[in-house]
Design a protein that fits this description.
It is a single chain. With 96 residues, the chain is mainly alpha-helical. It has one domain. Helix content is 51%, strand content 0%. Helix 2 crosses helix 3. It is globular and about 45 Å long.
C-alpha cells in the first residue's frame, strides 16, 4: 500500500508539472512528450484503473518527437537526443 500511495503522489506531482506552461525551446517539445509516453506506458503495464495517464501540457503535441523518431535523429545536430529516439537508432548504420 505504501508503494502504491507513493506512486499516486508522484503521478499527482508529475501531472501538476506538465500542467505548467512549457518553455519555448526545442528540447521541451521532444523531452516532455517522451517522458509522458514512458510514464503512461508503465501505467498501462501496471493495470491500475485508478491511475490516470498523464496528459501533455496544453498546446504541446508529440509532433517533434515523432519527427525525431521518424528519422530526424540522423541530422548530426540532433545526435544528443538519441536517448529519446529509442529502438530506431539501435543498430542503425549511422551509429557504427
Amino acid at each position: 500500500a505504501g508503494l502504491a500511495e507513493a506512486a499516486r503522489r508522484g503521478l499527482a506531482a508529475a501531472a501538476a508539472l506538465v500542467a505548467r506552461p512549457v518553455p519555448s525551446t526545442v528540447v521541451f517539445f521532444m523531452l516532455i512528450p517522451a517522458l509522458v509516453e514512458g510514464v503512461n506506458a508503465r501505467l498501462a503495464v501496471l493495470g491500475d484503473a485508478t491511475a490516470q495517464p498523464l496528459a501533455l501540457p496544453d498546446g504541446l503535441t508529440d509532433d517533434a518527437l515523432r519527427a525525431l523518431r521518424g528519422g530526424a535523429w540522423r541530422n548530426p545536430l540532433a545526435g544528443h537526443y538519441l536517448e529519446i529516439v529509442g529502438p530506431a537508432a539501435v543498430g542503425a548504420a549511422e551509429m557504427e
